[in-house]
Amino acid sequence: MLSMIEMYVHGVSTRKVTRIVQELCGVEVSKSQVSELASDLDTNLDLWRQRRLERSYPYLVVDARYEKIRTGAGVVSRAVMIVVGIAACGHREILSIQIGDSENEVDWGLIFQDLKERGLCGVHYVVSDDHTGLVKALERHFQNVLWQRCQVHFVRNFTSKLGGKESKNYLYKLQDIFAAPDLDEARSRKDHLVEELEEIKPQIASWIDEEIESCFSVYHLPEAHRRRMKSTNMLERFNEELKRWSRVIRIFPNEESCIRLMGTMCIEQSEEWETGRVYLTIKEEQFKELNREWIWHEDLNLASATLQPS
């Protein structure tokens, strides 16, 4: 029985599980029996998803990926929305996994509200892509928190706007901006690229000038943290692992089966992170020294948060 559940959790479909069990053990089991066994996971999964958050989490990494789920209206694409916290002790932990609409402010707002009700505290910085609904929900629920737009996603947006051939000529210049040693130098390099693009691609030049500031929030962090906190790459790597398992299933029969598999994988990964090596060395005085109060800039479409003097 445990082997059957293990196979299901690791992405083997119910149909394949029944065939494997029959071939190996000579025992016939139905798909419904496999599903019933798998549903026994739900109790533990629900307890984990609703657990009290007892730590302080200075950093959050937020991202979503998509799965195909069968509904009464047909097969639809739904977002698997995940929030990772980096605790003050330096370890990573998956704080939340939900199914929803990643562009919807309401869905993200419900996730953030749930996290706060479960005890989330100590958040100083959030890194994510610039999904409209996500950014609006962050503004509403984390008003005094610095937001970083994922630099990797910004690079992808840039190359898609320019096109393949032209992006090769300018991609390294954008990467050079993000490699700047400090905020002033990053802004200086940005100005040079904007000036160069204004003559040939004025719309893209304007887009960079208006939007890239959101990618510079990372410069307000301790230097030792910047490489890992400038993008959502850490969470995207885990999302790729989820994709590898869900590809076997292709289409989930319902949302419950999707959250069961994705959630169980999240539990395993979170436990591995929590018992593994420290991800970041975080010292309380690193944040106290900033002595800051974050604010959101409406004129940048929530694109940046800056430090205010005490």
How would you describe what is shown here?
The protein is α/β, with parallel strands linked by helices. It has 3 domains: 38 residues, no CATH class; 132 residues, Nucleotidyltransferase, domain 5 (2-Layer Sandwich); 73 residues. Helices cover 53% and strands 16% of the residues. Strands 1, 2, 3, 4, 5 and 6 form a 6-stranded mixed sheet that branches. A two-stranded antiparallel sheet has the order 7-8. Helix 5 packs parallel to helix 6. The longest helix is centred in the C-terminal third of the chain and has 21 residues. The termini are far apart.
Strand content range: 15-25%
> How many separate structural domains?
3
Through-space gap between termini: 61 Å
Radius of gyration: 22 Å
The CATH top-level class label of the largest domain? Alpha Beta
Major β-sheet, in short?
6 strands, mixed
Please identify the structural class as seen in this structure.
alpha/beta
**CATH architecture call of the largest domain:** 2-Layer Sandwich
How would you summarize this macromolecular structure in one to three sentences?
The chain has 310 residues and is of the alpha/beta class.
